[in-house]
Design a protein that fits this description.
This protein has 324 residues and is mainly α. 71% of the residues lie in helices and 2% in strands. A hairpin with an 8-residue loop joins strand 1 and strand 2. The two termini are 18 Å apart. The N terminus is likely disordered.
Length: 324
Amino acid sequence: MTEAAAEVPPLGRVRRGQHPHRTLGFALAIGGALLFAVNGSVSKITLEAGVDSLSLVLLRSAGAAGCLLILVLGTKPGRLRLRRTEIPLLLVYGLVGIAMVQWLYFVAIARLPVGVALLLEFTGPVLVALWAQLVQKQQLGRSLWLALALALGGLAMVAQVWDGLALDTVGVLAGFGAAIALATYYIAGKHALVSRDTVSLAFWAFAVSTLFWSVAKPWWTVPWDTLAASVTLPGSLDGFSVTGWALVAWVVVLGTVAPFLMVIGALRHLAAPQAGVAGMVEPVLAGAVAWVWLDETLTVIQVLGSIVVIAGIAVAQRATADQS
């Protein structure tokens, strides 16, 4: 077992010898979910201010990679060493698990309520369970199918399919695309962590994403004038204004790096399934933030559907954990 592999505890339990503080762990996990949730509304405001989704994902990837690089260089620079055998997996992880997740999510929230977009994306863990059942031949039992039934039934309620698909079609497709990319993030990330620590893995993933979007969206096409302009905040913060750069800084620091590090901190005190289930509050929090801040109201049926989807995702994660 390599040193990096030794750093990764089995999925279902905390390492022996650690003295976890579960209350602190749950506080960190939920705090990270809250920051991610607020970031959904901040990102939507940034997009509506005229920053296109490709520019935002480029800036987010580059900013996160820069922050993580400083963190690694300031602690253990040796962790940045890259082995040739790691490159293919890191490319998949960075291109699909990071680049596509961010871009498809931004497309979804530009066309859908933030809470709905996140719910679609968070069917990713259900796809992971399905992968374990069909591809890896793990026998997850009835819990998997219960989870799928709950998730699909809840999504039907959220989308209100009986009402002629009231949600934007492109937004829904982007949300499901983000779910597939998120599932890839989990599966590829789990394999990559066998030989690499979490922070350096995240740096390389964001670096790959940055290189990809630098080609797909060259830096000189970024709307720099829009970023320098003042943006009036909507909803309950109407009357306050900030620059586009301030919004992007929030997306990078408080919407990406800080919650990521909080989730890492939570894993020191919680088993991975516990931290994952705690993170399931993100769609609920995102919907609540958008409701209070952006006036993105949901119907009673959509709220109930949201709860059903989250229940399905939680059941799927538990089914996976029980087999680990």
